[in-house]
Design goal:
Length: 213
């Protein structure tokens, strides 16, 4: 279900970008898009791993489950940023509940897919056997995204107006504000990754206790 939903969202995104006359690579511009595209691939990997496990009678690949953990962290960050930062924005093109959750691909990318991914992680993916180092792994994509866009805008490779989010328009705010926003986003990513890590660990402990009984 998640795989199909992510594909629908991607198709709508590409069509919308082409209608606006933007290059197709604009699909990768926003963190929302990138996190959901990675989520799409992780859903496909998990599906294939589950089929393989059923046929062989073995456990689902640990790497596939860790990949799902990482992308669930990313889409959860997406959902939280939408709720806390974008939705309250007074700009009619950026803010608003309807605009962020019921417009085009945003229905899938801002709400449906992140919520479904979180529910899958909680109830349907089994034990993940996560390690503490997986928390860092889950934060790396967000760090790379932030540092890439801050660099592109800071060195005038991309104009401020073309930054994917208002808080990445580094020339329109102080250095301190840019650093603060990056720390906030990375902090949110770290908190989400840590919370999901403990949830995944508790699931593993519960599963082991059930098996022993």
């Amino acid at each position: 279900m998640l795989l199909v939903a992510e594909i629908i969202g991607l198709i709508i995104s590409v069509i919308n970008q082409l209608k606006k006359g933007n290059p197709a690579y604009y699909v990768f511009k926003a963190y929302t898009q990138d996190s959901n595209i990675l989520s799409m691939f992780s859903a496909l990997v998990l599906l294939l791993a589950a089929v393989k496990a059923i046929k062989s009678g073995s456990e689902i690949s640990h790497k596939a489950l860790v990949f799902r953990y990482v992308t669930t962290c990313l889409t959860t960050v997406t959902f939280l940023i939408v709720v806390v930062v974008l939705m309250p924005n007074k700009d009619p093109e950026v803010g608003g509940f309807i605009n962020n959750f019921f417009t085009g691909s945003l229905f899938w990318y801002h709400g449906f897919c992140p919520i479904l991914a979180f529910i899958m992680f909680l109830f349907f993916e089994g034990k993940h056997d996560l390690k503490a180092k997986n928390i860092i792994l889950a934060v790396i994509p967000t760090f790379l995204y932030a540092i890439t866009w801050v660099s592109l805008v800071a060195f005038n490779i991309v104009p401020d107006e073309d930054a994917p989010y208002p808080f990445l328009r580094v020339h329109q705010q102080s250095v301190g504000a840019s650093v603060m926003w990056c720390c906030i986003i990375l902090g949110v990513a770290a908190v989400v990754a840590t919370v999901l890590y403990f949830i995944g660990r508790e699931k593993s402990v519960s599963k082991n206790e059930t098996t022993e009984e």
